Design the sequence.
DNA sequence: AAAATTTTTAATCATTTGATTAAAAATTTT
DNA sequence: AAAATTTTTAATCAAATGATTAAAAATTTT
């Protein structure tokens, strides 16, 4: 029973390759994966990768773009919601991202290591500055600061702390599990706990 | 003006190789570095790597071992100090680790990606379970829980939050800097701020 | 069902890359 | 300073790896 997340319509070979590429790239990163690994994971002839995607780099680009847009797209939606309060946004981010990452736990480390290896190229495709700076979230944050509801004036600290509390455990998951003999279910339970706790912690940290 | 941290006694060729290997391995990881990259960084003939260290893997092992022991050795000392309170330990960890990582900012991502690529092999060399479970810190934490000074009973949440607040910003540094046009000095200033703030945040989160 | 097109396969290529070797250069020992 | 030892170099090797090719197989179109 291997099979990672995306296990839906692997009908076409093109989709089989993409699914396999995701699995292997997520686990080992671009540099450490061999095109033969992907072909084997997909159960397909090696030449098909080049037939459908031209090159390893092109295939990687596609996986990367989809991963990015999945990851920050949902963030943008949450941060830009006019109808939710700042507090509700924190709740939603904790809830949704823990669910999202739990399904594909390798994604955070994958994104971070690939950005490390190629920051200029990858970051220019990510309009993070705009997403954050032009967001409803930032407006609400600045209002809360002005109304003295929040003690910390720098939204960067706020976001780093929030995302750190959500994402960091997934990044150190191998260390935690190896060092405390946790099973996957126990780790997942721990993260479910954090869904509730993170918004409370954030409130305690920042609420005046 | 290249030159990363360890730039002291590069007198012998052996040390030159190790310094260069650190620089390249930290930046690109094991899989993405070529032995030729290291030789070039060191300004030495490629064959010298094999002459002094037998193989790329052996050289990597040495760098890895030194990096690990530097990273968790200092942690052990702090966690095992009988003379400091829990609160003081938090202050010391924030202070020392931010200083430590600021000097060699690639280390956290390096450690995490290499553990991802080879968890069994690398983690069995790291007695993290023992360091944490048998520490004075754990004793103090459990006492504080019993005395109702701390609301959160699970030391894992406490440690993850503390280390997340310290380490996570370094891991996402490329994203932060790329997305907000920060300069290195500004990022460093941000981390200096966090030295003071993290202990306060931790108190707010966990103190009854 | 014949022809045309698309997909898949096995074999092979060219480059990259970790490693070795034998000779040259430098250093140390006698 | 001659001999022995250690260190460095240029050349080369062998295996790994991304990619291509030409033929075979499968599918679609006519």
Sequence:
């Amino acid at each position: 029973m291997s099979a990672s997340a995306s296990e839906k319509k692997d009908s076409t070979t093109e989709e089989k390759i993409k699914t396999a590429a995701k699995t292997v790239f997520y686990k080992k990163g671009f540099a450490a994966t061999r095109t033969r690994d992907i072909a084997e994971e997909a159960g397909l002839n090696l030449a098909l990768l080049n037939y459908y995607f031209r090159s390893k780099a092109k295939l990687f680009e596609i996986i990367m773009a989809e991963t990015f847009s999945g990851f920050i797209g949902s963030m943008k939606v949450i941060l830009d919601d006019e109808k939710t309060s700042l507090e509700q946004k924190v709740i939603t981010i904790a809830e949704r991202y823990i669910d999202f990452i739990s399904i594909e736990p390798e994604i955070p480390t994958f994104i971070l290591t690939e950005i490390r290896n190629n920051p200029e190229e990858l970051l220019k495709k990510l309009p993070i500055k705009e997403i954050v700076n032009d967001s409803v979230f930032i407006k609400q944050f600045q209002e809360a600061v002005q109304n003295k509801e929040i003690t910390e004036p720098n939204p960067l600290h706020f976001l780093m702390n929030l995302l750190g509390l959500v994402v960091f455990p997934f990044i150190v998951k191998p260390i935690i599990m190896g060092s405390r003999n946790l099973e996957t279910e126990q780790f997942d339970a721990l993260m479910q706990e954090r869904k509730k706790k993170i918004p409370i912690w954030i409130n305690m940290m920042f609420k005046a």
Observations:
- The two ends of chain A are 50 Å apart (CA to CA).
